[in-house]
Write a structure and sequence with these properties.
three-stranded antiparallel sheet; Arc Repressor Mutant, subunit A; 6% strand; 5 helices; 127 residues; 3 strands; mainly alpha; 50% helix
């Protein structure tokens, strides 16, 4: 990301994605929302702006923001409720583990390691 904070209306101080960065746009958006939550710009239980408002602030398509929000929902960081309501459901700390697990699964898959084998390998690790 290019380091220029947005002065948009979300109150999150979001930095627009860097289109020269090889990271996918929706991943950059998810990372920026995680950062804002970690920095205390939004707290668990707090409502977030709608996807279209976040998209306008970040200068990206609303579908890009929706993809980012789905990632964050899978990580347990945000909840997407009725009427397009978005709430912070947790801190991204646990989400960071979910991201690394997803990366691990992708690496394992590329190397022909199945889910059951991966679980067995994890269980054999020292605690």
């Amino acid at each position: 990301m290019d380091g220029v904070k947005s002065t948009g209306g979300s109150g999150l101080g979001l930095t627009p994605p860097d289109r020269g960065d090889p990271m996918l746009l929706h991943e950059q958006v998810a990372a920026e929302i995680r950062r804002a939550i970690l920095d205390g710009e939004a707290w668990p239980g707090e409502q977030l702006p709608q996807a279209r408002d976040l998209a306008a602030e970040l200068g990206v398509n609303a579908n890009t923001v929706l993809r980012a929000l789905r990632v964050l929902r899978e990580e347990g960081v945000v909840e997407m409720g009725r009427g397009r309501r978005l709430r912070v459901s947790g801190r991204p700390d646990r989400g960071a583990v979910a991201v690394k697990l997803k990366e691990l699964v992708e690496v394992a898959r590329r190397h022909g390691v199945g889910r059951e084998d991966l679980v067995a390998m994890l269980e054999r690790l020292p605690r």
